[in-house]
Amino acid sequence: MIKQITVLSIMGIVVFISGCGEPQAYGKVDNTPYAISECRQELAHGTDVEADKLADKIVVYKKKRELSMYRKGKLLYACKISLGKNGDKGNKIQAGDYRTPEGSYYIVRKKCDPRLYKSLMISYPNEEDKARARAHGAKPGGYITIHGQPKWNADGHADRYTLAHDWTEGCMAVPNKAIDTLWRSVKNGVKIDIHP
């Protein structure tokens, strides 16, 4: 009897870890499958965007939970965001504090992500961030991005819920429709200013 329970427990853990029974997820609001291959194709070949729709600056206001994209001072696009779980507790100090950084950075990489759709990596930590972490005897962390939604919300059905909560590890999360817009209009090297 004990052996049967142990075997069933192990099987249950394996099923849980493997994700069996996980609802099918979608990568865009038009219900196409959540596809890394499409994202990688875009990375390889780029996307055709008119020059006047290419951004030269991104501005984030953490308190407003708002991201805006500009070209030559003209607003191209704006959307709501979620922050790190402790995003309202000030500037990021160290790895694992779940705070979203504040300061001036730039986009360094576009990344296809099977867990969070697409992401735009920022140049955190800068020298100031590293010095602040050292002053606290800590490491600054890294891998801060603007990213899309997790698989369970890939079709956008829960955008209202996710945007009403801060849930990331320090990144800025936007709806997948928004990350598609940013992905097309933002090239590596675009400046991003993150304000309190």
In one word, what is the shape? Answer: globular
SSE succession? HHEEEEEHEHEHE
Helix content: 25-40%
**Number of folding domains?**
1
Q: Which structural class do the helices and strands define?
A: alpha+beta
- Beta-sheet strand percentage? 15-25%
Strand line-up across the major sheet:
3-2-1-8-4-5-6-7
**Arithmetic mean pLDDT:** 84
Domain L,D-TPase catalytic: 56-195
Pathway: Cell wall biogenesis; peptidoglycan biosynthesis
Organism: Sulfurovum lithotrophicum
GO molecular function: carboxypeptidase activity; transferase activity
Short description:
By secondary structure, the chain is of the alpha+beta class. 26% of the residues lie in helices and 23% in strands. It has a single domain, classed as Beta Barrel (L,D-transpeptidase catalytic domain-like).
Helices and strands in order, then pairings?
Elements: H1 2-18, H2 36-45, E1 57-61, E2 66-71, E3 74-80, E4 103-113, E5 117-122, H3 127-135, E6 145-147, H4 159-163, E7 172-173, H5 176-185, E8 191-195
Please tell me about this protein's structure.
The chain has 196 residues and is an alpha+beta fold. It has a single domain (22-195), classed as L,D-transpeptidase catalytic domain-like. The chain is 26% helix and 23% strand. It contains five helices and eight strands, in the order ααβββββαβαβαβ. It has helices at residues 2-18, 36-45, 127-135, 159-163, 176-185; strands at 57-61, 66-71, 74-80, 103-113, 117-122, 145-147, 172-173, 191-195. It has an eight-stranded mixed beta sheet. A hairpin with a 2-residue loop joins strand 2 (66-71) and strand 3. The longest helix has 17 residues, at 2-18. The protein is globular and about 45 Å long. It starts with a helix and ends with a strand. Residues 5-33 have low confidence and may be disordered.
